[in-house]
Amino acid sequence: MLTGDAVRVETADEGAIWRVFFGDSRGNVLRRPVMVALRGVFRAAAGEVGLRAVVLEGEGEHFSFGTSVQEHLPAEAARMLATFRETLLALLDSHVPHIAAVRGRCLGGGLELAACCHRIFASPVAELGQPEIRLGVFPPIASLLLPGRIGRGAAEELCLSGRSVTAAEAAAMGLVDTVADDPGEAALAWARENLLGHSASSLRFAVRAARHGLRRRLADGLQELERLYLDELMQTRDALEGLESFLEKRPPRWRDE
Fold first, then answer.
1. Which of 93, 157, 162, 197 fits as disulfide partner to 134, beta carbons 3.0 to 4.6 Å?
2. Domain spans of the chain, in order of start
3. Is 151 helix (H, G, I), strand (E, B) or coil?
4. What is the pTM assigned to this prediction?
């Protein structure tokens, strides 16, 4: 078992599967130290020649409430976006099948992290959503990833409404692959049945082939969306109002500017 302040890794099946638990708060908020720790795990996974699957889980009752709202404020936003981008690109660059096991809430950056995985298993009471618009901002990564996973209409509905969906609704739209009482154990069982019998080397080539072009589309697209976020959105009064009202625990007072 590998451990750290924000991430712990349990190995299974003689190291062929990693079970990665992340989070250092009740809602497993993806603060920068958590992102950096995850990035280190993904980079380590790239060098483990016998690794066939990574099961990603939040500690405790929830997958993740998302990235830190405090780090969305103007002074930290650029650094936060860059760190999250580098973390998710490290996941893609590992070329190892990743499976998200979702319990409780999977929101904002938490759902973006799960959507980068190859499969998502969720408990029946899980809630998934992109609530950023409720804070006066938008989710750059979800804007690029979700249309390819669930179709443009469903992706836009999640990003524009900010509402959360149940595991059953998420499964119906193709966001969740399997609903299971214990998503972590179900993910392990799926990996053992479907991945362990294959060559780890060949699996990595299959991942690269199946995701051909995805990394480039994500990296190139994020350059433009991060510019839109930082240079235009964050110059508006309502973006700051949405973030500050959340932190101050009060309703936002929109001025539409």
1. 162
2. 2-183
3. coil
4. 0.96
Active-site entry in 57, 71, 112, 127: 112
| DSSP designation for 4 | -
Phi-psi region for residue 213, left (φ > 0), alpha (ψ -120 to 50) or beta?
Answer: left
**Assigned CATH topology for domain 2-183:** 2-enoyl-CoA Hydratase; Chain A, domain 1 (3.90.226)
- Dump pLDDT digits (tens) for 126-149: 999 999 999 999 999 999 999 999
Determine how β-strand 7-12 pairs with β-strand 53-58.
unpaired
| Two tokens, residue 184 | 């972590």
**Which residue, among 147, 58, 117, 122, has the nearest Cα to 130 in the 3D structure?**
147
What is the length of the chain? 257
Q: Out of 57, 71, 127, 132, which one is annotated catalytic?
A: 132
112 catalytic per annotation: yes
- The long-range contacts involving 142-147, CB below 8 angstroms and separated by at least 24 positions, are 142/111, 142/112, 142/115, 143/225, 144/217, 144/218, 144/221, 144/222, 144/225, 145/112, 145/115, 145/116, 145/218, 146/115, 146/175
